[in-house]
């Protein structure tokens, strides 16, 4: 079996970082208020749980900013690895897949909580298109037999 040698342009691999930044700017603005709304709804549904449970579920804007900053480091490193390898880096492909599965989690969470962690649905506007573009062009060691990136 021949080895796939195709590469993708660096703009595609750096697109992962751009898509993540757009997605997480929206989460930065909305996650803390959304967590408060979700906790309020859960607290009224499950009043028997101790107060400490609810305090641990709410996130502050500072907590969100630190988490997003740390993830930004991972996303930048993955995009750089993808750019160096032409999209063949296992690290880049794993982070790209994780970003796609993050979208799935957000889409599945919307009906249950009537909102994602943010007020809009960044999964539809940024994550899925970025993943489809990257996987339609990028060589993959683990592509499904149907060729579908999902």
Strand content: under 5%
Main beta-sheet annotation:
none
Which shape, going by the Cα principal axes? elongated
Question: How confident overall, as mean pLDDT?
Answer: 77
Strand segment count? 0
Summed up, the domain count is 1
Note poorly predicted spans.
Answer: 142-150
- Rg result: 18 Å
Cα(first) to Cα(last) distance is 24 Å
SSE arrangement, N to C? HHHHH
Helix content: over 70%
By DSSP (H or I, 4+ residues per run), the number of helices equals: 5
Q: What structural class do the secondary elements suggest?
A: mainly alpha
Descriptors:
150 residues, mainly alpha, 5 helices, 0% strand, disordered C terminus
Helix and strand topology:
Layout: H1 10-45, H2 51-57, H3 61-85, H4 90-113, H5 122-137
Tell me about this structure.
The structure is a single chain. This protein is mainly alpha-helical and 150 residues long. The protein has one domain (10-137). The chain has five helices and no strands. Helix 1 (10-45) runs antiparallel to helix 3 and helix 1 runs antiparallel to helix 5. The longest helix has 36 residues, at 10-45. The two termini are 24 Å apart. Residues 142-150 have low confidence and may be disordered.
